[in-house]
Design goal:
heterotrimer, A mainly alpha (276), B mainly alpha (290), C alpha+beta (336), A: 276 residues, mainly alpha, MetI-like fold, 2 domains, 73% helix, globular, B: 290 residues, 13 helices, 75% helix, transport (chain C), ATP hydrolysis activity (chain C), ATP-binding (chain C), Transp-assoc_OB_typ2 (chain C)
């Protein structure tokens, strides 16, 4: 609409858009500034905007109180581990569906998607009991397995939509050039699909990082990820507002940065390629 | 392409994914259904044996279930209403010629990347707390009495938090759809003498209808399972005022250790999700052919 | 060595029979062109030979060895695709080296062969570029380079020139023909363009609806088409066909006359068939006249480029009596 709008219109829209955007961003902004305030200043009335006394103590306190580093490490292990494991299972499957489709391929894809729609609470109890009996409760590898399973359909779907864009001619050329399947995948398909694979990886790390059902229900102390770490701050903490902010900032900062880089892929991944 | 050999290979390579997902889907679900017909409590080991529809009668007959079901619908419906209307508005706004579009996009999308417990805690302590929350300060500045949001409007508060998290998702998808509308089509409408309102009504809205459907369906899937936001803010209360089905199952099964009743609730949750899923699959399935 | 034998090859996709039953004998060192209209099964036939599709029944032999079930990687054939199918993430050098790398050849030897191929194809200065930085013609050369380095038993070309512009196409046509004379390796070349077929082939296979209509040298096909389909497909502009009483005069169901086999006159009565010029296409060297002949319909006539005609001019045509093709009701050529 109105591509050659007047400067006035542009100013108007710009002001409106920035106002709305800043309002939406304000909780995050609040977290950022409060993390650097003293506890007293954090609950001061009237509130200050920028910290009067800039302090980094909160971060140290959070580490001492709840061991941020351990939880962050668990989050990294689970999110990256589950995504890599998922890719190993998904790349061959997506290759099959994109390049050797059968009449049933579409049904299989839809069925895989449907597993994603099963509500977690529907299987929470058996998984909890199985994990208890197999001593997987509160373990990083147990959580990694669950995370792989819940994100596998998305990984397969995303890879499938990326692979579909690769001309089959090129894979056939590799076959004519004497490449066996392994070489075809390693030397031709994967290098060509690197952007797609990277996007898939990124989105799934984000999803796994922020997953807050299984991470909370299946862990307690040892294997707790950042979602569990932050939940430990949920009891009334009136006097610890600044520390809560510091902890929150530590929990979301890494993924916020990753997220900013992957907006486009996010759309494609979460809509299963239905909106590009 | 596809020789018999390739097809055999393809089947082999697809097997691991299919098998793990099959196990993941079938085994726990079968167990949930099985438990839902058993008397099975971790607290009271004397209670065993076939329960028939007992667990279902117990869960569904309990007033907390009705309330959780209503809460679930209000939560899903409320969030959808806010995010779809707000998202459409934001997408149209961000599609205008404005300064700093790139930075704006980043600001708007950010809440989506905030993990649910953090989102809930920021809102709970930093904004909705009657004493030192920002909204409290704002109310006081306006000369009003600060509201204790989670005590007075627990479900509404949860809806606000969840809507804040999902508004970016709706905006981003609707914006993507909006930008795929060809410039020529808009210009053609302009040449045909359509004003801004008519262009929105007859050109833009129909073009975005598909994306809106997808936003609604995908969000519904996620919103039916909202858990962490409730867990770290209200704990489902006061009473059952902010308990949805997902949280009710957690409360019954894990917190109260009543496996049988919890499972029955889980089966109900699966049935509700499936009804939604059928519609979503149709929408996505159509796209596969295109 | 590279003789290729097809024995009763059949290919069906479900219910649909693409190739009912084809048997062919391609000799070592031959340049064979598969030509036919789109959908005639020529590409499928090539892919069957390549091993990219498998036969529903029948056998394919390379140098007498049955390779029907062998995967493409084991057949020792090279293929040049219509889209060139270059590996976009590899440099030209790596593209050409890829088949050798797959054959686990020592690096020194790979380098030598790549250098040699690059010199032969004038690609020397592009070796470190990515395919997307090349023009269409250069990409085509890289694809050919990738095919020749591994010294295959035979080359398969799948409409390799159809993405090039007209001038380049003529050049590449010559280059491929020269390459064949130099290498003397069996080549199978698929095209829908009968000019490419006529100019390049030792022998042509004319395909229609999955059947071989005729297999022979270009001139054989031109001079003695086996049936009406081949007669109409080979030769440009197309042969003119006449049915009915005029054909019966020649004891045939229908007769065909090539545009170049007319004697043309503007003198009234100086010809068997009288007609009116509809459109005159002047190419400079030749002029193609589209003549509406009374009672017989539209005919294409080729005449030299010196004469000028206009819409509405009266002309008189006499077909060369020795070059009238006769066909029976089934479209088969009648022998004299």
């Amino acid at each position: 609409m109105a591509r050659n709008a007047s400067v006035q219109t542009k100013v108007g829209f710009t002001v409106l858009a920035w106002t709305v955007a800043l309002l939406l961003f304000s909780p995050i902004l609040w977290t950022i500034v409060t993390a650097f305030k003293t506890e007293a200043e954090a609950i001061a009335t009237p509130p200050t905007f920028l910290p009067l006394t800039f302090t980094l103590d909160n971060f140290g306190d959070v580490q001492d109180r709840s061991d941020y580093i351990k939880h962050a490490w668990n989050s990294i292990l689970v999110s990256v581990g589950s995504t890599l494991l998922g890719l190993v299972i998904a790349i061959p499957a997506a290759w099959s569906m994109a390049f050797a489709p059968t009449k049933r391929t579409k049904d299989i894809l839809m069925w895989m998607l449907s597993t994603k729609m099963m509500p977690a609470v529907g299987v929470l109890i058996p998984i909890y009991l199985i994990f208890r009996d197999l001593r997987l409760l509160d373990t990083v590898h147990g959580l990694t397995i669950i995370m792989t399973l819940i994100n596998l359909p998305i990984i397969i779907w995303m890879l499938y939509t990326y692979f579909k864009e690769i001309p089959v001619d090129i894979l056939e050329a590799a076959r004519m050039d004497g490449a066996e399947l392994w070489n075809e995948i390693v030397h031709v398909l994967v290098p060509m699909a690197i952007p797609g694979i990277a996007s898939t990886l990124l989105l799934n790390v984000i999803l796994a990082w922020n997953e807050a059902f299984w991470t909370i229900t299946l862990t307690s102390g040892r294997a707790g990820t950042l979602t569990a770490f932050i939940s430990s701050f949920s009891s009334p903490q009136g006097l610890f507002l600044a520390k809560l902010s510091a902890a929150s900032l530590l929990a979301i900062a890494p993924i916020l940065l990753l997220g900013w880089f992957s907006q486009k892929q996010l759309v494609r991944g979460l809509t299963f390629g239905a909106v590009k | 392409m596809a020789t018999r050999q390739t097809r055999t290979l393809a089947r082999t390579m697809m097997a691991p994914a299919v098998i793990v997902l099959l196990i993941w889907m079938a085994v726990p679900l079968a167990m949930t259904i099985w438990f839902s017909f058993q008397n099975y409590s971790l607290i009271n080991p004397m209670m065993t044996g076939f329960a028939g529809w007992g667990n279902y009668e117990y869960v569904i007959g309990d007033p907390s279930f009705t309330q959780a079901l209503v809460n679930t619908l209000l939560l899903v419906g409320g969030v959808l209403l806010i995010t779809v209307i707000g998202g459409t508005f934001l997408a149209l706004l961000l599609d205008q010629p404005i300064w700093g579009q790139g930075v704006l996009r980043i600001l708007v999308i950010s809440p989506f990347f905030v993990m649910p417990p953090v989102a809930a805690l920021i809102w709970k302590n930093g904004f909705m707390h009657p004493g030192y929350g920002m909204l409290g300060h704002l109310f006081k500045a306006l000369g009003l009495e600060p509201v204790d949001w989670f005590a007075q409007y627990p479900l509404f508060s949860v809806i606000v938090i969840v809507a804040w998290q999902w508004l970016p998702f709706a905006t981003l998808i609707l914006l993507t759809a909006l930008q795929s509308l060809s410039e020529e089509q808009r210009e053609a409408a302009e040449m045909d003498g359509a004003n801004a309102v008519n262009r929105f009504r007859y050109i833009i809205l129909p073009h975005m209808a598909r994306a809106i459907t997808i936003v609604i369906l995908i969000q519904t899937i996620f919103l039916l399972g909202i858990f962490a936001e409730i867990r770290v803010t209200t704990g489902g209360g006061p009473g059952y005022a902010s308990t949805n089905i997902a949280f009710l199952v957690f409360r019954t099964g894990i917190l109260s250790n009543d496996i049988g009743a919890g499972s029955a609730g889980g089966v109900v949750a699966v049935i509700i999700a499936n009804i939604v899923a059928i519609f979503l699959m149709r929408a996505v399935g159509k796209n596969l052919d295109a | 060595m590279g003789s290729i034998t097809l024995e009763h090859v059949n290919k069906s996709f479900g219910e649909v029979e693409i190739i009912p039953d084809i048997s062919l004998e391609i000799e070592d060192g031959e340049f064979v062109v598969f030509v036919g209209p789109s959908g005639c099964g020529k590409s499928t036939l090539l892919r069957l030979i390549a091993g990219l599709e498998d036969t529903t029944s029948g056998h394919i032999k390379l140098d007498g060895e049955d390779v029907t079930g062998a995967p493409p990687a084991r057949r020792g054939l090279a293929m040049v695709f219509q889209s060139y199918a270059l590996y976009p993430h590899m440099s030209v050098r790596d593209n050409i080296a890829f088949p050798l790398k797959m054959a686990k050849m020592p690096q020194a030897e790979i380098d030598k062969k790549v250098e040699y191929a690059a010199r032969t194809l004038n690609l020397g200065s592009y070796l470190d570029r990515r395919p997307r930085a090349l023009s269409g013609g250069q990409r085509q050369r890289v694809a050919i380079g990738r095919a020749i380095v591994r010294e295959p038993k035979a080359f398969l070309f799948d409409e390799p020139l159809s993405n090039l512009d007209a001038a380049l196409r003529v050049n590449m046509r010559l280059e491929i023909t020269e390459l064949h004379q130099q290498l003397k390796t069996t080549m199978i070349y698929v095209t829908h363009d009968q000019v490419e077929a006529m100019t390049m082939a030792d022998r042509i296979v004319v395909l229609n609806a999955g059947n071989v209509e005729q297999f022979g040298s270009p001139l054989e096909l031109y001079k003695r088409p086996a049936n009406r389909f081949v007669a109409g497909f080979i030769g440009s502009p197309k042969m003119n066909f006449v049915d009915g009483p005029e054909a019966e005069k020649h004891n045939a169901h229908s007769i065909g006359v090539r545009p170049e086999h007319f004697t043309l006159s503007t003198t009234a009565g100086a010809g068997q068939w009288a007609g009116t010029v509809n459109v005159a296409e002047q190419l400079g060297s030749d002029t193609f006249l589209h003549v509406e002949v009374e009672g017989l319909g539209l005919m294409t006539v080729r005449t030299d480029g010196e004469q000028t005609f206009r819409h509405g001019d009266k002309v008189y045509l006499t077909p060369d009596a020795n070059r009238i093709y006769r066909f029976d009701a089934a479209g088969l050529a009648l022998q004299d």
